[in-house]
Amino acid sequence: MRTVRALQRLRGVLSQSFSSSSAEKPMPGNSMLRHLTSKIKATGPISVAEYMREVLTNPVMGYYVQNDMLGPDGDFITSPEISQIFGELLGIWCLSEWMGAGKPSRFQLVEFGPGRGSLANDILRVFSQLRGALGGAAVSVHLVEVSPKLSQVQAQCLTGDQSQVSASEDEPVYRHGTTTTGLPISWYRNLDDVPRGFSIYLAHEFFDALPIHKFQGTEKGWREVMVDIDPDEPGKLRLVIVPAPTLASTQLIQADEKRRHVEVCPEGGVIVQRLANRITEDGGAALIADYGHDGTKMDTFRGFKGHKLHDVLASPGSADLTADVDYSYLRRMAGATVACMGPVSQKDFLKNMGIDTRLQVLLRNCADPSTRAQLIQGYDMLTNPLKMGERFQFFTMLNHTPLPVAGFSELGLS
Ligand code: SAH
């Protein structure tokens, strides 16, 4: 057990839940605000999607591009950062799907938005420990990451210093190397650059960072909510409902939509379509885990800074922006060629994957009282319905329907 990492991760985190203040960090907010206001002055209000895309992933000043925002000293904390058990169980899930597919000889693990690399690291440790079960399969690791800063952190975590940056910035593979467990690993900016072949795709807290459009139902029909300059305070931004329909408001709303306010993430839809296509043609499965709902929630767009809620329009670029994932939309975009399951709650998924047994094994092998307490606290944080147990949801896309699927019902390894 990686006690040191577990202790570092847990230090101060579990007691603060999602809210404690962080130290001041360099604020790209002002230059981002200037950039956005000059854009709006030039072409009029921008969609919330464009606002989110600029704020989060602008190549020069984007929030993700600039920062390592994860963990106790950052803006938010995620399940893989809380407990090693999370990644270990997802590692078992990957193996179980690979086995269920008839143990193909080539096996790509593809992760979207790997953050600090902790989830992949825990999964790769499981693969290494269960090398026998993997037989001679050629396993490779592929990370889709927009942030040069975080790709460095991931490379350090997963390869030590065994990775190189590609010679040209335009290369589809912008970094590559060998993991500490001896597997080839590559970094890409887009899914399209990841080689085809049997793959298990993982996306943990990735889809919630993709840009959403926001729409309001009005007496005149659906109208898009956009970001404009506040006429009373020109240094501030505000949300406005634009009077005329936009291309997005005419294209993205379902005819039978019952809600009065809707958020749609077309970029997420496109990724899911591409995943469905790959899974159908090459085999494999995708597991998406995020804050989410099944087409029921309305206004979920929010900011996080220093583990506290933060006004989405205030000092843009200095805080994380996120919106709950609409799984009903992803299911619709996945189409009929793949089988979709879920969403199921994180609590149910992890229990089905055997989290209780795994916790008992770790506790049995651990004498240190403070580490034991932290293991139990981590378990509680992940599974307690009042903490992360219910708010996080798991959803899968598969190219087969022979049920049961691990996590969505109890795990059975054959
Ligand atoms: N999965 C990690 C990190 C979640 S934060 C965890 O759970 O701890 C979101 C991650 O997605 C970051 O690594 C961020 O840089 C990456 N990301 C955000 N938007 C992206 C995009 N459009 N393309 C690729 N990666 C993106």
TrEMBL record:
InterPro entries: NDUFAF7 (IPR003788), NDUFAF7_sf (IPR038375), SAM-dependent_MTases_sf (IPR029063). It catalyses: L-arginyl-[protein] + 2 S-adenosyl-L-methionine = N(omega),N(omega)'-dimethyl-L-arginyl-[protein] + 2 S-adenosyl-L-homocysteine + 2 H(+). One of its GO terms (biological process) is mitochondrial respiratory chain complex I assembly. GO terms for cellular component: mitochondrion. Transmembrane segments: none annotated. Its EC number is 2.1.1.320. It is found in: Mitochondrion. GO terms for molecular function: protein-arginine omega-N symmetric methyltransferase activity. Gene3D superfamilies: 3.40.50.12710. Keywords: Methyltransferase, Mitochondrion, Transferase, Transit peptide. The keyword Transferase applies. PANTHER family: PROTEIN ARGININE METHYLTRANSFERASE NDUFAF7, MITOCHONDRIAL (PTHR12049). Arginine methyltransferase involved in the assembly or stability of mitochondrial NADH:ubiquinone oxidoreductase complex (complex I). Acts by mediating symmetric dimethylation of 'Arg-118' of NDUFS2 after it assembles into the complex I, stabilizing the early intermediate complex. Belongs to the NDUFAF7 family. This is Protein arginine methyltransferase NDUFAF7. It comes from Oncorhynchus kisutch. The gene is NDUFAF7.
